[in-house]
Design goal:
Layout (H helix, E strand, L loop, with lengths): L2 H22 L3 H66 L5 E2 L14 E2 L4 E9 L14 E9 L1 E2 L5 E2 L3 E7 L3 E8 L4 E7 L11 E11 L1
């Protein structure tokens, strides 16, 4: 081989090797760009992971709160159901509607006599003082009699009503007077006329009307 050819061959090989090396090794700025891109991607991934973690925690807290509220609502509904059932049982235990019965005319009720009520009811008393005025009195027209209604659950050894439950009214000469008094079932009652001026409570001119009306269901 001639020297010229040898030198030419060597030169071509060197050129080819240089070109190959240049192709295989990228320039330094390309590697920097790749490194920056990788770093940015890693940072973005960390941010996304942190955001996902925060949202997961918020979702868990929201779920916990919703569960607690649901439990509270269930407890409230149960309590209201129990209260409604209790109220309904009290309503069911109430007696039927109470109303007035018929006027009891089985007896001619007498004053100054003790009776016992079979039911709850009302005692209606009216007194007409038909006496003539006593002109010997300083104020004859102010002469009055007292009408008492007594009721109690007990009697004394003499059969008189014990207690202070009473109604009182005064009736002047020539006028009406009376009262309405409630009496419980089983209690005793009595209508009494007191005549302090003439001391004659059974005077036929003192007309006393006694009526009884029961309460029934």
């Amino acid at each position: 081989m001639k020297k010229e050819h040898l030198y030419l061959t060597i030169a071509v090989v060197i050129i080819l090797l240089g070109a190959s090396a240049a192709t295989a090794a990228p320039k330094p700025n390309v590697w920097d760009a790749i490194t920056d891109l990788w770093t940015n991607a890693t940072e973005q991934q960390s941010v996304i992971q942190a955001e996902v973690g925060a949202r997961t925690a918020d979702d868990l807290a929201l779920w916990t709160n919703a569960t607690e509220q649901q439990s509270a609502l269930v407890a409230e509904a149960s309590a209201r159901g129990s209260a409604d059932a209790n109220l309904q049982s009290q309503i069911d235990a109430l007696p039927d509607s109470v109303h007035f019965g018929e006027w009891d005319e089985s007896l001619i009720w007498q004053r100054n006599q003790v009776y016992q009520a079979d039911t709850d009811g009302f005692l209606c008393v009216s007194v007409l003082n038909r006496r003539q005025p006593n002109n010997t009195l300083p104020n004859p027209w102010e002469e009055v009699v007292f009408v008492y209604g007594w009721t109690s659950s007990t009697l004394d050894e003499n059969g008189h009503i014990v207690g202070n439950a009473k109604s009182i009214n005064t009736v002047e000469v020539g006028k009406y007077g009376g009262f309405i008094m409630p009496v419980r079932a089983g209690d005793y009652w009595e209508v009494e006329i007191d005549d302090p001026m003439r001391n004659n409570p059974n005077d036929p001119w003192l007309l006393c009307f006694i009526q009884w009306i029961p309460l029934i269901t």
